[in-house]
Amino acid sequence: MIDVRVDHRVLLYSLAASAVSALLFGLAPALQASRTDLAAVLKANDTGSLRKQRFRGRNALVVAQVAMSLVRSIPIDRLRQRAENA
Questions:
Q1: In b/e form, how buried is each residue of 50-72, taking b as 16+ CB within 10 angstroms?
Q2: pLDDT for 10-22, tens place per residue?
Q3: pTM, to two decimals
Q4: Could you tell me the CA-to-CA distances from 9 to 5, 6, 15 in Å, in that order?
Q5: Could you tell me if residue 2 is inside a domain?
Q6: Which helix (DSSP H) or strand (DSSP E) does residue 68 occupy?
Q7: What angle do CA 44, 49, 55 make, to 5 degrees?
Q8: What are the Cα distances from residue 8, in Å, to 12, 13, 14, 20, 33?
Q9: Quick check: 41 and 47 in contact, CB under 8 A?
Q10: How far apart are CA 54 and CA 62, in angstroms?
Q11: Is 1 inside any structural domain?
């Protein structure tokens, strides 16, 4: 049997990392959307360039989030493999 205990330092670090990640990926798009000058956007003829700028930031956040998910999944898979071998 595997002796599993909760390490409070690891738990605290995980909770802090989750909170920071949620704030970063939750607030960044909201702050970006709140900075948009709607009057200028509605009056402008060429809105394509503004959309590209908005999507570039969002795409960067999505790429970063996927990368962080992959980085977190590697140790979990190794832990699973060790548990199966034990």
A1: eeeeeeeeeeeeeeeeeeeeeee
A2: 999 999 999 999 8
A3: 0.39
A4: 12, 9, 10
A5: no
A6: helix 48-85
A7: 125
A8: 6, 8, 10, 18, 38
A9: yes
A10: 13
A11: no
| CA atoms lying within 13 Å on the CB side of residue 57 | 14
- Angle between the 48-85 and 8-34 helix axes, to the nearest 10 degrees? 170
- Owning domain of residue 68: 8-85
pLDDT digits (tens, 9 = 90+) for 22-76: 888 888 778 877 777 767 766 766 555 556 666 777 888 889 999 999 888 888 8
Q: What's the start-to-end Cα distance of the chain, in Å? A: 8
Q: Count structural domains, the chain.
A: 1
Look at residue 51 in the predicted model and tell me its pLDDT. 61
- What are the φ/ψ torsions at residue 3 (nearest 5 degrees)? -85, 110
